[in-house]
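can u pls check wat happens w/ 3-phosphoglyceric acid
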Amino acid sequence: MKQLLKNMNINNKRVILRCDLNVPIKDGNVLDETKIIKSLETINYLLKENCKIVILSHLGRIKSEEDKKQNSLEPVRISLAKLLNKEIKFANDILAPSTKEIALNLQPGEILLLENTRFLDIPNKLESTLNEKTAKQIAELGEIFVLDAFASSHRSHTSVVGISKFLPSCLGSLAEAELNLLNNHLSNPKKPFTVIMGGAKVNDKLAVIKSLLTKCDHLLLSGGIANSFLYALGLNLGESLKNDNPEIVSELQSLMLTYKEKFAFPLDAIVSSTYNNTTNIKSIGKIEDNDIIKDTGAKTIAKYKDILDNSETIFINGTMGVYEEKEFKNGTTEIFNILSKYPEKVVIGGGDTISALNNLGFRGKFENISSGGGATLEFIANGTLPGIEAIMEDDGIEVLDL
Ligand code: 3PG
């Protein structure tokens, strides 16, 4: 296929490489380098081909000037430089003339990392609204565009789908491998097909949940998403994370009516009380006003195990609780224990889920791991992804006057 990196003539070319280096960072340190390590294969291939490399990535969610402080890619630059044992140049304003000058003067084998693409959203949303003028400006920094950010390819953003309109473009090695993984396991999944979904905010995922329900046989929920559904059923969730917006509540109610037999909800939970700081296991119908749900209980895990044992394909994105805290890691650990009995049936997806896997000692137990969480859910729901489509439609390129 023409649009794969291995089939392109890239020798000595200036390549714009869109990676997904959206990694957890605390106090300026990268907490989990998995996504950076996964990006090395393409970077090393480009280095071997004597390319001049301009790397783009987003990091976190940028809604205000304040958000920028915590979300610079500078810690990623340090980590990447260490992993490659190589100096990485950095430019903090993607659209500045000085950045273009650095990019155009790169020598073969040199790498320039640009600051977080989502900084372009403040103030004018130049990244998230797929701004053509901005895409063209970024395209002027290179001669070829390589999309390796599989985990972001569900976002119709400027740096993901915009640039390929102006440059010869292809998928990088990671994006190719991830696409193959999903095509093989999730395009036409063996049934029963079960999706385990955690996550904080139901409104972020509502569209995808609606499509998923037409594709999967079972949807096992946890976290804020499960809480929102349970709240819509009329249960008291105390101070737990949930969406109580009346419009969302009524959408969730109608989904539960339509797909009653597909949903599986928690039966019990480990809660901590903001009133007296105690931790208790409670039935889901007995949650009190001061309780916060922190983990999934043993009855729920037993119920989920029954469904999982009888499934032929399983996709998991999300955890069962706040696994980072010792007393709330049991639910997630138990689910990974169950899944590790039949890893060939399981696809794991998403940075947080992979971090949980690594932190809880399951590294190496699963083979089918996708860096895409949201991306994989959208792939299951819609059968394709905007970023991948943009590369595959790469025929009518508007050639830049370089
Ligand atoms: C991810 O971690 O799933 C990707 O990097 C996409 O991040 P986003 O959900 O903030 O777009």
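The CA atoms of residues 80 and 86 lie 8 Å apart.
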